[in-house]
Every structure is written in structure tokens, then in C-alpha cells.
Amino acid sequence: MKTRRRRTAAILAAVTAALGASALTVAAAQNASAAGACDVEYDVVNDWGSGFQANVSITAGETLDGWTVEWDFTGAVSGISAWNVTSQSLSGSHFTASDAGWNGAIAAGQTREVFGFTASGNSGEITNVEVDGVACAEGGGEQTTGPEPTDPEPTDPEPTDPPPAGTPVEEHGQLHVCGAGMCDESGAQVQLRGVSSMWLHWQTQPYAQNLQGLEWMRDNWNIEVFRVAMGVEPEGAYLDDPQGWKSEVETVIQNAAEAGVYVIVDFHAHQAHQHQAEAVAFFSDLADRYGHLPNVIWEPYNEPEQVSWTGVLKPYHEAVTAAIRAQDPDNIIVLGTPTWSQDVDTAAQSPVAGTNLMYTLHFYSCTHAQWNRDKADAAVDAGLALFVTEWGASAADGGLDGRVCLDEAQRWIDWMAANKISWTAWKLDVGNDSTNLLSAGAPVTGGWDNYLHGHAPFVIANLP
User: Fold this and answer.
1) Which among 2, 85, 172, 408 is placed 20 to 30 Å from 458, CA to CA?
2) Where would you find the membrane-spanning parts of this chain (predicted)?
């Protein structure tokens, strides 16, 4: 379910109104005089039955230098997780949250979307709303509704230009899952091959974000797909700067559309299930604005560690997948699997319901051998569609010792070719690890024939 409603009127008289869960507006007072009354909007943007996502906006009657908002849910709600707030709490049905500092200032007459949250349960309505401890103006917390907006919200335009002639996206178009494989717009089974970025915040230079470099890889290495690995948890990564790193990911998406290559948007985390609210917000926003593009592939969880599939990972994927599907009904989503995305056979025993879903398989050839392919074969035999979004001809640490294991890597390459399993090799950066594709001095814009490092020659030899 997707809704987009915004108030266009100022303060309304307080009247009781029964409103569906998609949007709710309540009148609140900034201070005891009620002259500073403002509007608070509770906007449910996604509801998947067992839970929901909502955004909250405040329209200030007088300038606010900080705020605390609270209300009671009419439905049974639990497990709430909000972002862009401090001091959030849920006691029974009563919810309270305060600004995070940077979003505390709201000018008189200004409407500002200040935070969002996900929760388990029934979205229902909200009552007894207070802002800074004062009940709704003259209405004792009664709910009021606003008119439908007279002007539609601006949306990102549909692409008007086709992908460049001769590019992978021009050739294959919209992708979809077909059985245990991937097919293109014409129904032909396809195997995409390409490379992955380094964790964005740890790149030595912004290789991933450079359009010329991407076009050079397309034309010289023949890559068909590029994976942008947005680090989430480490210091300086997404959780520390969500807007900054999301903007960098958007640059890669836009470059890929211009270059006519497929792009995997990777929430590169090892504990993403602990940041479900942030993941839902991230993918909801990007799917809303870029889900119309035929070349986008979503990857909500890079490498889960040794956690339960049915108890932890599957519920996480169900929530994030529902958020994506509310905005983007058809692009492929690749779901991370237990034990650093190796236990695809476990996921095959209880797959996530939905369409165009694939499952992540990772390998490093000095560590993972036939036993791991046996697990993958079991998953494929069970009908699971796999995508190797990360691999290296090295040890599982990415090749800190500088070794490459090319014989075993070739067995993996042959196995992926036989099963038409798409892949992206780790990683486009400079460094001593044997999985770094580039050597010192490699320019950002491409032209890397004399700057190959580690397993790069092997990777490039196996690109289309």
C-alpha cells in the first residue's frame, strides 16, 4: 500500500474524524496558549499486514527550536523502531519521541517531515496527540482531517531516452526470474557478469561513482552489471551519514542508467536485521524514485552471519521486500542467506513468498570448494534462483595474504556458466589484497590495462 497525502490548509477546527490508516492529521498546540497551534501528520506509507511503516510531519504555527511529540495508537502496536529521533519509547499504546537536534528547528508556517518508523501490528489511527506536552488545540486531542492536496507531489519522471545502443540494458531490457534462473525481456535466459565496488566509505578513490570509469569497464572489460556496495555499520558509513551515502548510491544508479549497464544496490551489512527500520527507509525511498528503471537490482542484505533463517533473516527480508514492492513491483531483489551468504540450501527450505526474488551466494575459492557448490546445487534443485553478488579467487578474508587459487576459481566459473548464474567479482579498488582489481596509480576514469592487480586478469578473462 502506498499513500501520499499532505495538508494544504492551515489550522482546522478540531472535529472527530474516522480515517483509514493511510494518512491522519491531528491539530496540536506548541504551547499552552494554543495560539502556536501546529499540525502533525501521521502518514502510513507501507502496510504489509503484520507491520507497517509511517512518516511523521509537523507544520509549526510558531517557530520551534526543538520538539517532543507523543500520542496513543488505536491499534495494537509493538516493536517500534524510529529513525531521526532521540528518546523514543513505546509504553503500551503510548508513543513518545523527540527531535535528533538537526531536525528540531521548524520555522513558523513551515511543514517538515521530521521522522519515520516501522512497527509490528495494526497501524490504525493515533489519538491524544501532544507536542511539547500540550494537547491538541481546543480539541483535547481530537483528530481532524485536512483536504486532499490540490497539486500532486512532484515525482521523478519516467526515462524518456532508451538505453544506449549496443549496451547490456538495450540488449536485455527488463529482467525477471524464470524458474531457478534469470531471463531477459524477450524470455531468453541470461547470465550477467561484472564487478563490485569496494565498501564505498573505504574506497581509496571514488572509483564506483565515476561515469567514465563505468563506461570504460563496459567497453573494455565487457561488464554487464556493476554492484555498488554501500557500507552500513562501520564508523563513517551509512548509519553515520545516511543522506550523504544515499546520495553517492544515487550517483551510481544514475551513471548506470546513462551507461546502459545493470546496477545492484547493495545494503552492505553483516547485521542488517538490527537496522531493519533504516533498511526499510533506504529501500522505500530509492525504490520510489528509481524503481521505474529497468536496470536496477536490489540487494537488501550483503552477508548475514550465523543467524536463523526462519527466525531472523526471513522476517527481515519480508519487511524490506514489502517496502520495495510498495514502490517497485517488478525489479529483481536478491536476498542474503545465512553464514555469510553460503547457506542457500537453508533458505530453499522456506523461501520468501513473492515474485522476482533471487538469493545471494558468495564464495572465495581458497576457502570454499565443492562442499559449497553441493549446497548451492541443492538450492537450485529446489527451485531457488541464485545470484553470486560477490566472489574472489582468494581466501574468504578477501586475500589479505595475497594468494590466489585459480584452479578452484575456474571450477566455480564453470559451475556458474553451466547453471547460468550471474556474478559480480570483488572489488574495484587499489590495495594489497588479492581481490583488489587495481594497482597503485590507477586513475579514477578508467584506462586500467596497465594497472591490473591480484585476481583481476582472471576476472577480466571470464567476463563476456
Assistant:
1) 172
2) none
Q: Domain segments of the chain: what residues?
A: 24-144, 168-461
What pTM did the predictor assign? 0.70
Q: What's the mean pLDDT when you consider all of the chain?
A: 85
Q: Are 251 and 244 in contact (CB under 8 A)?
A: no
pLDDT digits (tens, 9 = 90+) for 54-101: 888 877 778 888 889 998 999 888 878 777 777 888 998 999 999 877
Say which of 142, 215, 390, 408 is annotated catalytic.
Answer: 390
Whether the pLDDT of residue 418 is over 70: the answer is: yes
Q: Exposed e or buried b for every residue in 219-257, given b needs 16+ CB within 10 A?
A: eebebbbbbbbbbbeeeebbbeebeebbebbbebbebbb
- Which residue from 349, 413, 408 is spatially nearest to 375, judged by alpha carbons? 349
Q: Is 303 labeled as catalytic in the residue annotation? A: yes
Domains 24-144 and 168-461 share a fold: no
CATH class of residue range 24-144: mainly beta
Find the mean pLDDT for residues 388-401.
Answer: 96
Sign (positive/negative) of CA torsion 459, 375, 330, 201? negative
Annotated catalytic residue: which of 125, 142, 303, 318? 303
Average pLDDT estimate for 111-125 = 82
Fold of 168-461: TIM Barrel (3.20.20)
